[in-house]
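Journal club prep, shared notes

We agreed each person brings one worked example of a sequence with its structure written out as tokens. Mine is Non-structural maintenance of chromosomes element 1 homolog. I'm keeping it raw so we can talk through how to read the token line rather than staring at a rendered picture. Sequence first:
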Amino acid sequence: MSYTNNHRALLQVIMERGAVSTADARELIVKLFQQNESTQTYIHQINVKLEPLNMTIKLVTCELTGHKYWILISTLIDKTASFQNEFSPAQLELLRKILSEIITSDDGCAPSTACLNLCSSLDTQMSKADAEDFLAKMVEKKWFVKEHGKFYMGVRSIAELIPYFKASYSEEALKTCALCRQMVFHGERCICCHNVLHMLCFANCARVQNPPKCPSCNTIMSTDNINDFDAYNDHVLDFPEMSVETENSEKRTTNPTKKRKYSAR
Ligand SMILES: [Zn+2]
Ligand SMILES: [Zn+2]
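Then the structure, token by token:
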């Protein structure tokens, strides 16, 4: 199959929205292509075209819902989170401070009131109303997720800012999920060793291990939070990500438990 205007249309939507859920992408593909190839096939064809431009479309999981999103990212490592001048100095400063609040918190989130109060500590002035507008846009563009008055790390931050986090924070400040070995900000915490697991990784683990145990210290972990987890309730298909990786992009560790489907209850 050759690269067509349909591929361009798909890329256009991903660029405009910043992040497109796998469900929305599938719906769009069915409309555009009227063929039964997998989503990964089309994304791979677009990624081949994007490679010389140092860009790629990557699949990233939302820590809060377990839903997956296709995101267009630069493959050039940006350790400074400069966002290519997308934001004003005040916005950038607020953004970095909120990211810091989330990273240094125990549960991977920052209350919105505390985030707005950060306005008074910025080097460049910003009103709370402006900050509120800005943060609403950041949620819309999936840089943050807002739930119950708290900001969490959004899929675009997870897709694009890992090099910045690694360059800016100590190893102790950054948490790694013991199941998939990827960075984790919010998830299920072991009450004994305090290690944090992605909720999706933990939900997958709990399907094969009953009761599930902490992979680090073997303590039995509560499954109470899994029942509130969207991906679990939606029976989201969790498919492997390797096929969409380009040579330049970071290779992910494949986790055998990640490929399992949620079966209908
Ligand atoms: Zn994980
Ligand atoms: Zn533990």
